Amino acid sequence: MDPKQTIYNILNRADGVVSGETLSAELGVSRVSIWKHIQGLVKSGISIASSPKGYRLTRDPDSLVPWAFEAWQDRIHYFHETGSTMDEAMLMARKGCADFTVVVAQRQTCGRGRMQRTWLSADGGLYFTVVVRPDIPMMLAGLVNLAAAVDMAALLRSLYQVEACLKWPNDILVNQHKLCGVLSQMEAEGDQVAHINIGIGLNVNNAPETEAPMATSLKAALGRPVPRRAILVAFLNDFERRMATFDPRIVIDEWKSNNVTIGRWVRVITFKDMVEGTAVDVDPLGGLILQLADGTSQTVMHGDCFHC
Ligand code: BTN
């Protein structure tokens, strides 16, 4: 086991100060190496108070380091800073990582959104990608993205009583401002899904509105900061349950009952096209059905949707 993890576990169990002498005896290394490992832990975002008596873990409900996650710790890969959790997750997925491997970052230097947009990823937000390996045909992959947004919105409503609504396909809005976005990448074997990497960016204690006026954060919505770890754990538990009993009809029903797109006049922009109409329904694969001005219908499977 990584000596840093052993030290973290000892401090975590101790619930008080542990002397450098005790740690060095337990790990069989010098007190200088213990001190170096402690510096490493502090650098990776763990709050440890040092005093002449030893070291004490300052319990931090916001910490995202794997050891703080208990049941999920073996599947969490934490980066203090990375380009994008999507890229890290793709490398792991291609090497055959387990279902529900999670890559989470304190901040991203090249966070990206749908349609090749930048995703602002300053400290304080929750940025992660989950690799899932559902046994489903490729054509149902879009519903997994919808399901992720449905689960995240539901837990934000229940944990924080915010009016989290869904804008097609998988944006989460609060007071018409964007709180959360979902980006996915899929690879297939034949016509079956090999893996889907679901990337979620949730504005928690960061302030995206300073650069993107149509964005908001949980902190702004609630008027107080919120610890991120409980959100990630609740999401992973809910989403794992969802995927174990994946039912396309339930996903669509739940998406519909919390959406703010159906009934609106919308403009959907894809990489090469633009279509406008009234959003009238979502089809069984998650496509948005539009009724155009000339009375005809058109279904769009992906794109950026603007409520007009
Ligand atoms: C969107 O609404 O455009 C999707 C935004 C997705 C952002 C997340 S943050 C974690 C993961 N890593 C990325 O680079 N993007 C996704």
In short:
Helices cover 31% and strands 28% of the residues. It is an alpha+beta fold and 308 residues long.
Would you give an account of this structure?
- 31% of the residues lie in helices and 28% in strands.
- With 308 residues, it is α+β, with helices and mostly antiparallel strands.
- The chain has three domains: 3-57, Orthogonal Bundle (Arc Repressor Mutant, subunit A), CATH 1.10.10.10; 66-257, BirA Bifunctional Protein, domain 2; 265-307, SH3 type barrels (Roll), CATH 2.30.30.
- A hairpin with a 5-residue loop joins strand 12 and strand 13 (297-300).
- Helix 5 (141-160) crosses helix 7 (229-244).
- The termini are far apart.
Structural topology:
Layout (H helix, E strand, L loop, with lengths): L2 H12 L5 H8 L3 H13 L4 E4 L2 E4 L18 E7 L2 H10 L6 E8 L17 E7 L8 H20 L4 E3 L3 E4 L2 E13 L2 E11 L15 H5 L6 H16 L3 H10 L7 E5 L4 E9 L5 E4 L5 E4 L3 E4 L1
Helix pairs in contact: 1-3, 2-3, 5-7, 5-8
The structure holds biotin.
The site of biotin (BTN) has 20 residues, from helix 4, strand 5, strand 8 and strand 9.
